[in-house]
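About this split. The held-out portion is used to measure sequence recovery: a designer receives only the structure tokens and must propose an amino acid at every position. Recovery is the fraction of positions where the proposal matches the reference. Here is one held-out target exactly as it appears in the evaluation file.
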């Protein structure tokens, strides 16, 4: 897929337009809060009529979701309900195919085995590119301390075609993404040691052991810059890989969010201005125009 025109509105600070946001709830409905009767694969899209969100998909190493988690405990050991005491909505559990005694304990091995979940959005308007300044999601370990996760982005852009980023969570980045919720374990070579990022453990069987977490999840926010997602990207997939556990344990994810707001600071980034390929002029809404406040070849003027 090739874009014919650059989306001018993505190249400067938005003045009047509302934020563009795509949210995957990753929740299920359940009468008892345990069995998933309907996995919510439908994303909510706000601030855009042209962004398309694919249904959640997963690799061959992940089981079809059939269970969910309704309750957990906070840092004080108090039992909480994700959606209120009377709610029957619960967070989908993601479980690997491998048996408990065959748990994959290395990230690259888990990735090769298909232990990942995909969240994909696309800009369908040929005159626009995706404007993403933050990607956020909540993550929790259920029933175990062994869950590790990492994430990468698969990107379609005019400049580079189809590309993948490196793994985003490292010993240097995880705290800035999470505010210190969860933990990081380096590869030590010790028997049974699982390197990587472990999100908060929040379930009904054990209180949270991380004193920086209060709401039952690691609250993850990844700020997006042009060196992560280029300005000419029209398609982005967040791929979350998990490992360290077998089919008797689970990972919880919810509120996977792509947004044009900078969630880390509350202030929108300014992307570097780039000229349109055919020198057309655009208004602040990103549509072709010949009068008013216009953008042309990275220049702003009134006509």
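Reference sequence for scoring:
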């Amino acid at each position: 897929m090739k874009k014919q025109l650059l989306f001018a509105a993505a190249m400067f600070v938005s003045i009047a337009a509302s934020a563009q946001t795509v949210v995957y709830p990753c929740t299920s409905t359940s009468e008892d809060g345990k069995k998933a009767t309907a996995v919510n694969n439908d994303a909510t899209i706000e601030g855009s009529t042209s962004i398309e969100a694919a249904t959640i998909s997963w690799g061959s190493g992940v089981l079809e979701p059939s269970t969910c988690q309704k309750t957990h405990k906070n840092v004080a050991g108090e039992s909480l309900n994700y959606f209120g005491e009377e709610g029957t909505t619960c967070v989908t559990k993601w479980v690997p195919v491998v048996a408990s005694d065959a748990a994959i304990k290395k990230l690259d091995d888990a990735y090769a085995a298909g232990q990942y979940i995909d969240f994909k959005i696309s800009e369908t308007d040929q005159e626009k590119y995706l404007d993403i300044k933050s990607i956020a999601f909540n993550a929790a370990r259920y029933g175990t301390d062994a869950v590790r996760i990492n994430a990468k982005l698969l990107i379609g852009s005019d400049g580079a075609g189809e590309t993948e980023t490196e793994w985003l969570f490292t010993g240097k980045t995880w705290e800035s993404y999470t505010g210190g919720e969860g933990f990081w374990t380096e590869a030590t070579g010790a028997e049974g040691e699982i390197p990587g990022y472990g999100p908060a453990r929040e379930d009904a069987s054990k209180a949270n052991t991380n004193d920086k977490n209060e709401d039952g999840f690691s609250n993850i926010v990844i700020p997006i810059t042009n060196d992560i997602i280029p300005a000419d990207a029209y398609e982005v997939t967040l791929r979350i890989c998990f490992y360290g556990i077998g089919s008797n344990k689970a990972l919880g994810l919810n509120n996977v969010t792509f947004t044009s707001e900078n969630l880390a600071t509350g202030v929108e980034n300014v992307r570097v201005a780039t000229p349109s390929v055919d020198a057309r002029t655009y208004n602040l809404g990103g549509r072709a125009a010949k009068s008013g406040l216009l953008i042309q070849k990275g220049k702003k003027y009134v006509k």
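Annotator remark: The first strand starts at residue 21 and ends at 24.
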